[in-house]
Amino acid sequence: MNHFFARHLYLVDFTVASLGRRRGRNLGLFAVYVLLVFVLASVSLMTHGLRREAQAILESSPEIVVQRMIAGRNDPVPTGAVAAITGIRGVRAVQGRLWGYYYDAGMRANYTLMVPPDRPVESGAVVIGGGIARLRQLDTGDIVHFMAPDGRIVRFTVSGTLDSASELVSADLVLMNEGDFRAFFGFPADRFTDVVASVRNPREVGTVASKIALALPEARVVTRADMLRTYEALFDWRGGMVAVVLSGAVLAFVILAWDKAAGLSADERREIGVLKAIGWETSDVIAVKFWEGALVSLLAFLAGYVLAYGHVFYFSGALFEPALKGWAILYPRFRLVPEINGQQVATIFFFTVVPYTLATIFPIWRAATIDPDTVMR
Amino acid sequence: MNKHLRLSTTSLSVLAVALAAALATLVDAALRFDSEALARRNRAALAETLQLSDLSLFTEARYTRHPALADLHSAFQDHPAALDHFPSAAWMPPTRWHEKQP
Amino acid sequence: MLFHPTIMALLLWSAAAVAGVAVAAAYGWTILMEWNPASGSARQLVLERRTYLVSTLMAVVLWGEVLSLWLFVYNADAMAVMFVGAMCAVGSLNADPYGFPALIAKIALFFLAVVWLQVNRADNQGWDYPLVRVKYALLLILVPAVVLSAGLQYAYFSGLRADVLTSCCSKLFEVDREGVGADMSSLAPMPALVLLYGGLGLTLLLSVWTWRRPVLSAALAPVAAAVFVAVMVSVVSVVSTYVYAQPQHHCPFCLLKPEYGYVGYALYLPLFVGTALAVSSWPVHHFRRAASLAQAAPAMTRSMAWVAAACYVAVAVVCTWIIAASELYYFR
Amino acid sequence: MTDTVLISLKKVSKIHNEGRPNEVQAVVGIDLDIARGKVTVLRGASGSGKTTLLTVIGCLARPSSGRVALDGRDISGMPERFLTRIRQETFGFVFQGFNLLRGMSALDNIMLPAYPQAPPHRWLRRRALDLLSMLRLEHRADTPVEMLSGGEAQRTAIARALVNDPPILIADEPTANLDTALTREFLGIAETLKAQGKTLILTSHDPRVFEAGMVDHVVTLRDGRVEERR
């Protein structure tokens, strides 16, 4: 065993010396490698962070949401539905919700207007999310004007802003009083946007949901678990898409690695010939070449990963902001909770180090089996 | 006596430092987790009281704001080039009608 | 459900493994057909050099397979949330009929690859390559195993359908399907513990004997393979319930989670290594008949038996510690 | 008498590029014994097959046919893996162009052949420094080899060949690029090594070498066959 380690230490000595002699080329490969790992790891850490964030919110979201469908389109739910659902066994609490979207033509941004179920908002006042406060430079006590769908300009006083640490869920919220909401949108008095229900026994959610579906045949019943699964699948699918898009980059990188390993200069071939002539065995040469790849790829992997960690958790994935923002004007400021997941790290490893290793096996073998007598010819 | 540092020693030390940095991210994550997770719990609490179900990350269109409760899952609702959030929509580009206008 | 980063990584890897083993087998075939150690011809030299490529490829395939086995289980656990009723990896694996066969094929492949690499290591110690034919014939058996494992994995992943909300949904998954819980068929605690300690004791005894008399590896190998299954059954039936302190929770995968202190790694690592070495000790010892390996083969067998014995002790210690530290009592 | 024969060649032939249009019969049916502790020179014009013969003797290549025995052990059919091991223990090579690895110091070059056996690093370094001082090169230990003069490069190559302490030293055209003074110096080193009990095998068509007093045997080759032995 000692001999094993001692031999590999010697081989590493030689590997590093020979990497150093071709510094330019190896640094180039190293830089590309770091960049690739950095991008893949950033995407992966970011999607995972957002996914966990979405999960955390969903876990505290209503257990059942009931929407009404007419011709496949959403329609406000009659207030009578609340009573109908309350009558179903196993239901703990039912509440009609009022919420909707408002397009701010001046800012070209979408807001979410909502009547908070838990806190009273005075008539003529609004509580706004951190994103809107920043976008329109509003603070408590300021006046804000919204244009109602019928053309009226409605004036509100900002009575408060939501905690800036919660921007990830509340950046675009405008909370107002029920009367103001109905008056602003001209929302019928006997309707709600949708209805939420909570269930006494969490195990019964499915049963209760099917009873609601039976009682209100036109309703679309969405359970929390459905949302959770859909989110999960959606994030995975998006991650998969990104991986497919980036696989082009991975492929280009693999070609680069292959080319580097296969395109031995006459000098390098002579060097391997000399090593074999002075008593190195083919497996020694393979081991040296293996170390070459291992040192470069491990170092690049670790460096790319650490950089990605800093990027995502200290700079909130600043480089991805344009992509996530899209055409949106409102973009929340957020700090993701740092969580590292072995599966992600292993997946990135599989996408980078493994193809690199595979791409270099054959060229390495070709190089290592050079005739030892080449140096004499 | 042996003042010559072996290359294997230096290079494996560099590797060890990189590994330590990678492990340090785990420690950093654990250290920051408590404070950040508190913020997350606050967010979740707000979401609970307001009965929210989605992140306010994608506000470009109505249906991207609340994917879990979208009123209708189809493209072109707010912008002719707005991407649907469903997998299949990513494959089919929107019609580029605006380029044909004079 | 193929558009998932980890699934794509696993599929990509299995495709690469098939390609790698196919290349190795193609070269192995030429070696098998044309090998002639008596000849000093250039062709023989070419064949000799191909052996290096084949063993390098096989080593990479083995290590990739180890990593991919781990990622496969990890991923199954992470995916559980997407399937109605699935609580952990067992539920994900049950979500499609090919789930468990794919896992079993991956485990079998791991053992086959270890056996091949150990035979290869033995062969490389004889100056006349005495095992070349056996070795490359074995390699040809590995090809269908790799292809089968890749095929099962593909069938599993492509058959998976996440239960998601789509625009038509008033459909409720909750009532459509029966929950695929984490329940697995299991033995009662007493017979399971007897099986566990009896099996571990038997293999430990046999590996110590093999260490003293390498010829006994012929008995050790099949017993170790059977005991591996027995240990897994008792882990599912009883050891896991001690870890979770819940007599109803029988998942062999949740042991790997941080909630349970990663105790699964401490259990599975020595179990897999020990079984792999015990199983390959026999074919290696079998080759003592070659004159050039008369010394080396038994020496290798003995060192393998020694390490295997240490591994079985470790498994027994970990199991005992789990049971002793548990809040669950079956017997008072 | 057999105990004085170190390497014995029986009907050795070597064909390059076998089976291809550019097939060359480099060496044809050679019988040759190399004596232990002596200096043997293979002499011949370029293309006479002496370098090829040297590769077969030095276990760098296997003969296409015939038998090679080292110390009475047949090594002609050995796989490369084991041939390398034997080469490592038995032979030290000084190549015609020296073939030092550029970009590495003289000391590192000298230590290279011992890497696979992995002796203790401190010991190996000491041994390489000792060899350098024996060859009066200690002041050049840390110099990159491309900065060495021709004579210094050759002495570095000799030190590299000796680092594993092989019983046989093989040198291919050792004096090809050297002036008379350096040639004399090389012959001096060779004589010292012979006195230490090493077997030396040289190729040369330089009369200064094969007419030197310490040379015991001269084998003249022509067209891959032995023309004359002395």
Identify the notable features of this structure and list them briefly.
heterotetramer, B: 102 residues, mainly alpha, 2 domains, disordered C terminus, C: 332 residues, transmembrane transporter activity (chain D), ABC transporter ATP-binding protein (chain D), ABC_transpr_LolD-like (chain D), ATP binding (chain D), MacB-like_ATP-bd (chain D)
Task: Summarize, please.
Chain C is mainly α and 332 residues long. Chain C has helices at residues 5-34, 42-79, 89-94, 99-123, 132-159, 173-176, 189-212, 217-244, 263-286, 296-325. Chain C folds into 2 domains: 1-168; 173-332, no CATH class.
| Largest interface between protein chains, with number of residues from each side | A-B, 80 and 59 residues
What is the count of structural domains of chain C?
2
Secondary structure tally: strands of chain C: 0
Strand content of chain D: 25-35%
Family (chain A): Belongs to the ABC-4 integral membrane protein family. LolC/E subfamily.
Keywords (chain A): Cell membrane, Membrane, Transmembrane, Transmembrane helix
Transmembrane segments (chain A): 27-46, 237-258, 298-324, 345-365
Domain ABC3 transporter permease C-terminal (chain A): 266-372
Could you walk me through the main structural features you see in this protein, from its secondary elements to its overall organization?
- The complex is a heterotetramer of chains A (377), B (102), C (332) and D (230).
- With 377 residues, chain A is α+β, with helices and mostly antiparallel strands.
- Chain A has 12 helices and 13 strands.
- Chain A has helices spanning 2-21, 23-59, 80-86, 130-135, 167-170, 178-185, 205-215, 224-262, 266-277, 282-313, 321-325, 342-368; strands at residues 64-70, 73-75, 77-78, 91-97, 99-104, 109-114, 125-128, 143-147, 153-161, 173-176, 191-192, 194-199, 219-223.
- In chain A, strand 5 and strand 6 form a beta hairpin.
- Chain B folds into 2 domains: 1-52; 55-102, no CATH class.
- Chain B contains 3 helices and no strands.
- Chain B has helices at residues 7-50, 62-65, 97-100.
- The model of chain B is unreliable at 72-83 and 92-102 (pLDDT under 50).
- Chain C folds into 2 domains: 1-168; 173-332, no CATH class.
- Chain C has helices spanning 5-34, 42-79, 89-94, 99-123, 132-159, 173-176, 189-212, 217-244, 263-286, 296-325.
- In chain C, helix 4 (99-123) packs across helix 9 and helix 8 (217-244) runs antiparallel to helix 9.
- The N and C termini of chain C lie far apart (48 Å).
- The model of chain C is unreliable at 166-183 (pLDDT under 50).
- Chain D has a domain at 5-99 and 166-229: P-loop containing nucleotide triphosphate hydrolases (Rossmann fold).
- Chain D has 7 helices and 10 strands.
- Chain D has helices at residues 50-57, 80-90, 106-111, 121-134, 150-162, 180-195, 207-210; strands at residues 5-16, 24-35, 39-43, 65-70, 73-74, 91-94, 168-172, 199-204, 217-222, 225-229.
- Chains A and B meet through helix 1, helix 2, strand 6, helix 5 and helix 8 of A and helix 1 of B.
- Chain C: Residues 1-19 form the signal peptide.
- Chain C: Keywords: Membrane, Signal, Transmembrane, Transmembrane helix.
- Chain C: The chain crosses the membrane at residues 52-73, 100-117, 137-157, 192-211, 223-245, 265-284, 305-324.
- Chain A: It is a multi-pass membrane protein.
